[in-house]
Write a sequence for this structure.
């Protein structure tokens, strides 16, 4: 399966808490929900719809999984929600117990075996393994050379600090720009493919 990352990103590379004020306040982050004013249902919503349609499974870090598991099951009846709810889901966690995996079709990948477990999934046939949010996990996947595609929704706002998906290990990684679309709200939706994966 190809590993595909989809993420909102500020001009200064921040991905933290685009969805709401209480989503992730680590480090005193005070801009939660920053993407809302720029959301374009046609372009950005279409990007999420397309990514979900091509996905054979979803992959999350623990915090993002818990946020999504608390939101999407109750939205049944919406086509996008129904797709997310039906897909197999994997969550990387050392702390979640099996009894806490209440979101339909969720399998836990133990944190200390995460890279090996994800590498195994990556090597299987099938559609995309889609990652939404989960900046710590995405940083690890990029570090390990496991990301095939980045779909970045680059929002015209500078946040002045916060979590990023990019490793800071000094290594160069090359991606090719495959497509770019600009929304009516000024968001550049850019798809990049890993040159190593090509």
């Amino acid at each position: 399966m190809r590993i595909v990352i989809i993420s909102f990103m500020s001009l200064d590379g921040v991905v933290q808490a685009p969805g709401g004020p209480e989503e992730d306040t680590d480090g005193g982050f005070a801009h939660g929900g920053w993407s809302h004013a720029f959301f374009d249902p046609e372009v950005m919503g279409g990007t999420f719809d397309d990514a979900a349609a091509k996905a054979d499974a979803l992959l999350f870090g623990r915090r993002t999984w818990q946020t999504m598991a608390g939101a999407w099951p109750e939205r049944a009846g919406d086509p996008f929600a129904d797709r997310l709810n039906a897909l197999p889901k994997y969550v990387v966690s050392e702390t979640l117990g099996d009894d806490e995996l209440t979101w339909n079709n969720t399998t836990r990948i133990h944190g200390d075996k995460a890279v090996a477990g994800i590498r195994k999934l990556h090597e299987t046939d099938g559609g995309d393994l889609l990652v939404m949010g989960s900046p710590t996990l995405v940083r690890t996947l990029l570090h390990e050379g496991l990301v095939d595609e980045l779909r970045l929704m680059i929002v015209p706002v500078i946040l002045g600090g916060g979590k990023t998906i990019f490793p800071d290990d000094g290594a160069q990684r090359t991606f090719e720009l495959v497509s770019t679309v600009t929304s009516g709200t000024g968001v550049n939706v850019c798809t990049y493919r890993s040159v190593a994966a090509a």
Remarks:
- The first strand starts at residue 2 and ends at 10.
